[in-house]
Amino acid sequence: MIVLGVETSCDETSVAIVKDGKEILSNVVSSQIDVHKEYGGVVPEIASRCHTEVVTCVFEKALKDANLKPKDIDLVAVTEGPGLIGALLIGISAATAFAYANNIPIIGVNHLAGHIYANNLENELKFPCLALVVSGGHTELVLMEKHNSYKQLGQTLDDAVGESYDKVGRVIGVPYPGGPVIDKLAHQGKDIYNFPRVYLDKESFDFSFSGLKSAIINFVHNNEQRGVEVNKEDVCASFQEAVTDVLVYKTHMAAKKYNVKQIIIAGGVAANKGLREKLTKEITEFEICMPSIKYCTDNAAMIASLGYFCSLDGYENRKFSIDGIPYLDF
To answer: What range defines the domain where residue 93 resides?
Structure first.
């Protein structure tokens, strides 16, 4: 089965073509990072306009790279949520028009589940598996007993990990997006500031990062007011250690409780080298599955892979009536 995937949930316009959920025939991504850097974050209206400008070209390039015609496509899968509603609707409209014009079945799929299935592009999912979903808007632990089965064990009660990285980055003066820069600086510094590790109840799988974020903001501002210069690399290292300690602890605890066969990390923050290093160093009794860096950020290959497995479960929709769902969860 050849699936064309479409992803426009935030600031990447992506179209990919994947065979049987594994073989990537093409994966075209048009990023808007340079556009939004000027504003220190994604501006929804600008994101929607940028999607509109490039989406047709991205479709054409994906088909050209795969050396396929529309008639060769068996299924269209498009992100229906979560995400920015304007951005989602651009992708849904384009995908629906393509499917309708070429009489191809179409399904809407969950963006978060797509990040999990990014792992399937290079590895086989082994059930039961535990997914740590970490991104700009989400931090969750999800148990999967089989394909397309999701049980949320815990989530952030306030800020997501990626959001915290961006806000801390803004305070210490690093460019947007803050995550990759902080990760790089953290490897040049030391954990000397001992920022708080917020575990909540240690038996809980929920997370909280707003207190840690506030602690760092207050620390930086208080030192600025006293005229004391803090080492930016050490702040980044101390922040990242506080974040990854909690993420790895709760992931390890959940994996042991549910006796999983595999631990998966998914989402944009899955590209964080500090998190990847700590997971492999501290969790040795479970297989750990990590997508390549290029599949951690938003891309349509993961949407196409998920679409394939949804189709196997009979999720096809020929009514062409997919809605954008900005707050969709598992």
So the answer is: 2-117+296-312
